[in-house]
Amino acid sequence: MPFSPDAALEFLRHAFESGRLAHAYLITGEAGSGKRALALQLAAFVAGATDDPLQHPDIHSVEPESKSRIIKVEQTRELEKALQMRASQSGRKVAIVFDADRMNASASNSFLKTLEEPPSNSLLLLVSAHPEMLLETILSRCILVQLAAPPRREPTEGQRRLLDLVSRFLLAKKPPGETDIGGVFVLVREFTKLLAEAKSAVQEEGAAELKREEGLYKQTTDGKWLAEREEYYKALAESRYLQARTVFMETLLQWWGDVLRQQHGATTGNALDFPAYADQTAKLAGRLSTPEVLRRVSALEALRENFGRNVQEQLAVEVAFLRAFGGQ
Question: Cα separations (Å) of 155 from 39, 158, 248, 274?
Fold first, then answer.
């Protein structure tokens, strides 16, 4: 039965206090369910951390690195070495593997040995939104802690437009092995159009808010105040635009997440982020291999990271969409 994050933490805390805490747990749940926070809270509790858990000397973690968004064997080996060391304080040693489904084959086999023979006084925590991607031997050695899905909101009009575009393009019949470059650039054009509309909307909203303030205060304040408020609303509009762009990026990643769930039969309950598009993601799941889907996800994750580096937006979108949508 899925837990709320608070209920899961209380359950695990009670197990620890009663001496029944297992040596390995797999914490799963959808995006926004609180997986990462729960892992960090539990780690802090059992290791005796009072500040940032990831700065505690007895709490060690790994997560995907590099453009490939893969956890490599070198990372898991460093984690294993850290666990072999004696705890520097009185609590347990804790190892956390965030996005554990991103371990490559070598890393998975390496970490499996640690699960099979865990160091004394250690706690192993795996965090994953896609547990079906983990080795069965890893799954069998962890106690599952499944978090309840967060309340699902209906897609906005903009999200539905994006999902309709993507599904029509990906499910269109093409000759085997042919790449529809023209179609990809249509997707790029429509995606940037959505971004432009979002930017225009937040700018108009900010301008209306500033105008209301001008009407209230222009008779009682000087021009310096107005200049400061103009700068404030300019910065606010940029922040709101970046939030809207993030929503569109998450929509694309959730779409591919649904494809992965369809491939592995993880579709019961509220497992799919976009159940209204279940037929489309199921068809696509049958056409593509899991490595191919993961390659496309990696391209979009790289785009999300590039947005965070303030790269040229249009060029970054074109490059990522060619990789994410440019092959069958």
Answer: 29, 8, 10, 8
Q: How far does Cα 304 stand from its chain's mean position?
A: 10
Give the helix, strand, coil percentages of the chain, each rounded to 5. Answer: 60, 10, 30
Task: Give the strand pairing for 59-62 and 93-97.
Answer: parallel
| Nearest Cα residue to 45 out of 37, 34, 29 | 37
E-strand spans in the chain?
24-28, 59-62, 93-97, 122-128, 143-146
| Domain boundaries 5-146, CATH class | alpha beta
- Residue 276's contacts (CB-CB under 8 Å, 6 or more residues apart) are 155
Going residue by residue through the chain, which has 328 residues, state the pLDDT in tens, using 9 for 90 and above: 688 889 999 999 999 999 999 999 999 987 778 999 999 999 999 998 888 899 999 999 999 876 567 899 999 999 999 998 887 776 789 999 999 988 988 999 999 999 999 888 899 999 998 888 889 999 999 999 999 877 767 888 999 999 999 999 988 866 555 667 888 999 999 999 999 999 999 888 888 877 776 766 665 555 566 667 777 778 778 878 888 898 899 899 999 999 999 998 887 767 788 999 999 999 999 989 999 998 899 899 889 888 877 778 999 999 999 989 886 5
Read off the pTM.
0.60
Strand partners, 26: 126, 144
What are the residue ranges spanned by the domains of the chain? Answer: 5-146, 157-325
Going from the C-alpha of 159 to that of each of 252, 267, 293, the distances in angstroms are 9, 21, 20
